Amino acid sequence: MDPHLLRTFLAVAETGSFSAAARDLRYTQSAVSQHVAALEADLGTPLFTRRPVALTPAGDRLRRHAAILLVRLEAARADVTRAVAPPGRLVLGLTPLAWAAPVATALATIRAESARLHTRLRVADHHRVVEAVATGEIDLGLVDGFTAPSDPLRLPEPGAGSRSLGVAESPAVVAVPTSHPLARRTAVDLADLADAYWIDAPEVAPFTRLPIDGLRAGLRYDGADASVLAGLVAGGHGLAVLPLPLVASHPGLAGVPVGAPRLVHRVELLRLETVADDPAERLAALLSAAT
Question: Where are the transmembrane segments (predicted)?
């Protein structure tokens, strides 16, 4: 199957419209229709009903495979490119709360070992980091989340071709202003805070991922700066579950340990197979040794 046709097919499936897919892809609507028709002819079955536009059972099956197929094609291209690229490049992608002391120490070590190492850091959400690792767009990914002690993170697809390694774990606390009545508590159950106002920060620490129902957002923060989120909590705009090191570093915050459910903040390293002398492999080895 032609990957260009698969990309067009996915655009139509995601938007539910031939015209919307054409706008997103910067094609004409006629070109989109021709791409879908060519793919249907190749597979010998309709992939969409036309009025209204909806996936057929065959189209729904193809959609499950298409995104992963395209990611693996990009990964193959990146792997070949990396094999012939000059050494000395390290691109690290991370979610906003994934930066941890072991990572900073390991990165400082390899940069000291190679003064000419060209290093780039990119901050993005979980889906973007996982996908960028799978396609080889970045060399290593660092993702974070809140989970039960010693449990791995539940990562979004496509991540099947990646390996993960836990590199840091710290207590999860409910962040409150230092003047808040809860600041004097030794522990708090999240279920007891169902009536409190929370800050929903989808790019940093979304409260919707916490393993408790009934929490409600009083404010939504769409940025990716953890220090802004900490400042919003300190200003009394709502609560957030955050890693203890971040809360401890902010003078206006207090961290109340989560009594139930038991939670920790976990950081995991994602990577594909790399060659032995690659800077990414060296960083992964240092982080593995530090755990």
Answer: none
